[in-house]
Specification:
By secondary structure, the chain is an all-alpha fold. The protein has 2 domains: 48 residues, no CATH class; 233 residues, MetI-like fold, CATH 1.10.3720. The termini are far apart. 24% of the residues are buried.
Length: 305
Amino acid sequence: MSSMTPFERVSVMTHIKSMKLGRYSWLGISYATVLTAFYVLMFVVPFGTAIWLSFHNWDYLQTPVFVGMRNFTRLLSDSGFWSAVKVTAAFSFTEVVIAISLALLLAFALSHLPAISQHSLLFIYNLPVVMPVVASALLWKWLYKPHGGAINALLEVLGVASQPFLYSREQALWCITTMVVWAFLGNTSVVLLAGINEVPVSILEAAKLDGANVWQSFRHVTLPMIQPVLAYQVVSSIIGTVQMFAPFQLMGGPGHSTRTLSLYTYELGFEVLDLGYGAAVSIAMFILLLLATIFELRRRMASWQ
C-alpha cells in the first residue's frame, strides 16, 4: 500500500468500500430506515412526551408547569387509581386464565383432526378476530340488554329470571370479560395449535408405546414442549388485556365497576383535562405491566430449568 501512488491508493480504498456496501441490500436498508423512523415517531416520541408531561401540570390551555414528583405521589392516595388497578388486575387475570385454558383445549382437539379440518374450523373461530372490536362490543351490548336482549330472551325460555348484566356492578365486568374471551379465542388457538403441531410425532409415538394415553401424552409430553409458545401467549395476553380500551368505553358498567387503568387515563386526559396526572397514571400502568411481564417470564424460565 505504501508503494502505491495516491491515485492507486484512492482507487483501492474506493473498491474496498464498494465491496463492503455491496454486502447489504439497499432495499433492506431503506425498509429498515422507514420502520425505524415510524417506530421513533409513533412510540419513542409519544413515550418520551408522556414521561415529560408526568412531571408537569397541564390543562391544554395554560403553559405546562413543572411539579416534580407531585403527580406520582398523588397516585399513592388516589382511590380512583387503586380502584382502576384492582379492576384491571381482576379482568386481566381472569381473561388470561380462561382464554388460554379454552384455547389450549381447543388447539389440542384440533391437532387430532386432518389439516383441512383444522384450517376450516380455525377460519370459523377467527371470524370474531377480524371483526372490528367496536362492532363486537356493540353486538354484545345488544345481547346483554335487560329488556329485549337475546341472552335474556333465552334465559326466559329456560325459566331463568332476566339478568341486569351491564347494568349490574357485580356482573358488568364479567360480561365484558366473556365478550373479550369470545373475541380473541380464535387468535390464541392459532398460536397454540402451531406450537402443538411442531411437537415431533416420534416422541408422541414413543410415549404411546410406553402406555401413555391421550391425556398423559398431552400433560407430560406436549405441554412441556410448548412452554415457550405458551409463555409468549401469556405475556402477549397480559399486555393486550391491560391496554384494552374499546370494550370498557362502549360497554362500561355503572359507576366505576368497569373502569380500568386505560379508561382512567383517558378520562383524566380528555375529560378532566388533567394531562400531567393522566400521563403519570399511564407511566405507572407501563411500570406495572413491565413488572408483570418480567415476573411471568422469570416464572416460566424457572420452570424450564
